[in-house]
Amino acid sequence: MVFIVRTETMYHHGMMSTKNKTNTENAGKRSGQKVIMVNRKAFHDFHIEEQLEAGIQLNGTEIKSIREGKVNIRDAYARVDNGEVWLVGMHISPYGQASEYFNHDPLRVRKLLLRREQIDHLSRQIDTKGFTLVPVRMVLRNGRAKIDIGLARGKQLYDKRQDLAAREANRDIERALRRRD
After folding, report:
1. Is the separation of the CB atoms in 51 and 148 below 8 Å?
2. Which residues contact 9 (CB under 8 A, 6 or more apart)?
3. In the beta sheet, which residues pair with residue 15?
4. Total domains present in the chain
5. Are the C-beta atoms of 135 and 42 separated by less than 8 Å?
6. How many other β-carbons are positioned within 10 Å of the β-carbon of residue 51?
7. Domain holding 96: CATH number?
8. Residue 145, domain member (yes or no)
9. Closest by alpha carbon to 65, among 91, 37, 94?
10. CB atoms < 10 A from the CB of 55, how many?
11. Within a 10 A sphere around the Cβ of 48, how many other Cβ atoms?
12. Has residue 174 been placed in a domain?
């Protein structure tokens, strides 16, 4: 990491003063990504085999509510109908600043924006191998809402228990290492 130190001259009430600033190389370049929600229930209930990023077709008040973080994808799923992918069960709260007339339906079915090859791949996986599509996380990337869709297979109860046991074992190991130091 390279630090660039520059001196900036400022005038304050007729007196000249200098002020040092420390900047990183990429301070002006932001990633432009903000994670809105992560669907932890999806990771608990499913084995996520593959993830795809999709755009969402939204109304004006929906994107404003998403920017405020008023969205729930926990009980949502996606389905492929007539060569299009639809997201069902995602709840976006009505925007508080808008009137009832201009607001949206919180539970309406929303279209996901994917390429034709991706849609064909997903529909083949769902039909032949018994996968399902679940939303994994929602992000704002450069001001646009994107959702990561996971190609998932359901977990059995013993799978969930194994994951819990492994997570607890890792925690115990971390605790032991911290005590040792």
Report:
1. yes
2. 16, 17, 18
3. 12
4. 1
5. yes
6. 12
7. 2.40.280.10
8. yes
9. 94
10. 14
11. 16
12. no
In tens digits, the chain (181 residues) has pLDDT values of 444 444 343 444 444 444 443 333 343 345 678 898 899 888 888 889 999 999 999 888 888 889 888 899 999 999 999 999 999 999 988 888 877 777 788 899 999 999 999 999 999 998 888 789 999 999 999 889 999 999 988 878 777 888 888 889 999 999 988 888 7
**Residue range(s) defining the domain that contains residue 99:** 33-156
Q: What is the DSSP string of 74-88?
A: TT-EEEEETTEEEEE
Round to whole Å and give the CA distance between 168 and 159.
Answer: 14
Q: pTM above the 0.90 mark?
A: no
Residue 45, both tokens = 């209930």
Strands of 70-177 (E only): list them.
71-72, 77-81, 84-88, 91-92, 110-113, 132-141, 144-154
Which residues are within 8 A (CB) of 3 and not within 5 positions of it... i.e. 6 or more apart?
22, 23, 24
- Tokens found for residue 100: 């009832």
Residue 36 and residue 41: Cα distance in Å, rounded?
A: 15
SS3 159: helix
